[in-house]
Model the fold of this input.
Amino acid sequence: MFSAHTVSVVREAEYALMARVPDGALMRRAAAGLAAECVRLLPRVYGSRVVLLVGGGDNGGDALYAGALLAARGAAVRALLAGGSAHEGGVGALRSAGGRVRKFADGEADGAEMFDADLIVDGLVGIGGRGGLREPHAALAVLASNAPVPVVAVDVPSGVDADTGEVVGAAVRADATVTFGTHKPGLFVDPGAERAGRVRLADIGLGPELPGPGLVCPQAVDIASLLPTPGAESDKYRRGVLAVRAGSDPYRGAAVLCVGGALRTGVGMVRFGGGKGVADQVIGRWPEAVADFRDPQSSTDLSPGRVAAAVIGPGRGTHPANADELRALLDSDVPVLVDADGLTLLTGDGGGPLAGLLRERTAHTLLTPHAGELARLLDADRADVEARRLEHAARAADRFRCTVLLKGSTTVVAHPGAPAVANPTGTPLLATAGSGDVLAGSVGALLASGLPAREAAMCGAYLHGRAASLARGGAPISASDLLDALPLAVAELSRSRRV
Ligand SMILES: NC(=O)C1=CN([C@@H]2O[C@H](COP(=O)(O)OP(=O)(O)OC[C@H]3O[C@@H](n4cnc5c(N)ncnc54)[C@H](O)[C@@H]3O)[C@@H](O)[C@H]2O)[C@@H](O)CC1
Ligand SMILES: Nc1ncnc2c1ncn2[C@@H]1O[C@H](COP(=O)(O)OP(=O)(O)O)[C@@H](O)[C@H]1O
Ligand SMILES: [K+]
Done:
């Protein structure tokens, strides 16, 4: 599990560590880690051309000391200083090692050194960056991103907010980022994650000073250890029965995809509740599902003994009868996942009785909105939700006192009082109709297997993203392809558990 800490936490930890180590030791450790990554990225060090982009703070200092280490090994290192001042010790070290330093003039559009370089090191701003990049930093960031040369970012790509991943205006697009002491949340959450490239953590001895993380990014082994596996004594009831309330006459496919997502993730049984037209379609595709034609609003089917969890919403409709159905589910003691039309009902909940029920629930509850749905739930702007995904998911989790999985370019999971989760898997190919219905079924299956909502959400999002990558080897996929690939993703994780 990768851990990330916010800037204020990192600063506090750094102060505590600095009190115990000699002056300048941390920067030298950081520079050594950065230089090692540069060596990995260069075809060879001796005779290579390295350009450092250097801002006025310690981020620039790291770049300068790393440049000095490379210059000492025979690289031709040039530093372009953005602004009037730069870390004095770093400038001195680079010059002593044979590197050259020049100021990048305001309004200069050239930066020719960059286009001839073998590597560009982005030391414009790190965790001290505030707001969008100013000039000449912004111009340098654009030139570096356009040069056909690998870029390594120091601590965070300049222009990316380290805490949120937000990008306002120009930002460096790095091939690799060397981050110090701990990961920063913005390296795992888009749009920042997309700018960071491959992220490597350089140890500067900060670990003992750090409290628990603010955000985690689970890896295959973490998901594998959470994933329920049937044991010798398992039967279909012990493995978990999932109630699916998805689909309606106009949207029958949503029911088929949601039930399929559950079955292909692994569940004891799916009980599908809905009208005859849609139920026939579900059973036609998935004969192993059990169709329930009883009044869907009746809560008699919702005792925890009968079903272990329920999914409601995909393609279900937003009529008053659907609101009654949702109310009955929220009123039960069964873990519930609310998606799509279920979220719309929550949004249009005049006076908030449904939201009130949500807040009072003691059973696990999970909302799975995309950015548009979350914006409506919070009465916020969709663009703001996409720019600052963690903040908005956390706000919804606090407001509704439940777990929130926000879908999109980076899927994030928020749960009151627990570290946020950034999902590392997935591809933009997932942006295709019906893939959210598959996710809802898949996460529902994990809830029914007994995982708590936060863990079910992180496992389901991980599997869904892996399934998309495995489905057609990078070619476009449809939601149905995801169903075929989900078992491959589960099997891949099972293998990683055995290693
Ligand atoms: N504090 C420590 O113990 C350590 C810090 N380290 C490095 O130090 C960095 C933090 O250094 P600083 O606190 O000096 O901060 P930074 O160097 O990240 O940024 C501050 C500088 O950037 C300028 N700046 C801020 N926002 C800007 C914007 N939007 N446009 C243009 N210029 C902007 C400021 O005027 C200032 O000159 C870390 O990211 C890391 O690279 C490492 O050396 C490890 C140890
Ligand atoms: N740009 C993207 N990159 C990665 N995943 C994405 C992207 N856009 C959407 N997704 C994923 O695709 C799925 C789409 O779900 P959703 O928006 O509910 O669509 P639908 O309602 O058509 O099923 C979600 O799992 C989401 O995280
Ligand atoms: K940087």
